[in-house]
User: Fold this.
Amino acid sequence: MVEAVRLADREGVNGLSMRRLADALGAGAMSLYHYVASKEELLDAMIDVVFEEIEFPPEETDWQSAMRRRAVSARQVLARHPWAIGLMESRTSPGPAHLRHREAVTACLRRAGFPVLMATHANWLLDSYVYGFALQEASLPFGTADEFADMAEDVFLPQLPPDEFPYLNESAAALVAANYDPAEEFIFGLDLILAALEPLRASA
Assistant:
């Protein structure tokens, strides 16, 4: 499975096939069917590898800190495996690592006092945020604050004449001056979500 994940990391999941994987392993395509029965089963196993890399919410801290650590870990893992973003919730035959991760997340929320339904709401909300951010981040044409500043000055600002787009021009110039780092948006949004969930836990 590790080689399949590496192949998807390099070339994307759309180019993955049993024959392509067999070539990468130096084996016959038919020999792979001794281990997995189909590409869908292969994808199940690959997603299980991805889930195994995501840190469980630790038990020795408060629920917000625990879920923050888990969300940060998930974002880092999905940055390494962007092909997995659209597959994380699509598997109908989850593997053992997948199920252990789900159990740990649910246990963290339930032990924190969330009733079953509210824990489900919280889980959906947090996962939607992580996956959505990871998807957006994977498609950005810049990856660092320096790259953003270069693009803002060389690409964005010339397209934003101040007489036509005064607010966008102002924003782009101010962000460059502030050495704005788009990566910091993840924690900003995550902390807002966690703070919004806290009174729902308390009231429940």
Summary: The mean pLDDT is 89. The chain has ten helices and no strands. The CA atoms of residues 48 and 98 lie 5 Å apart.
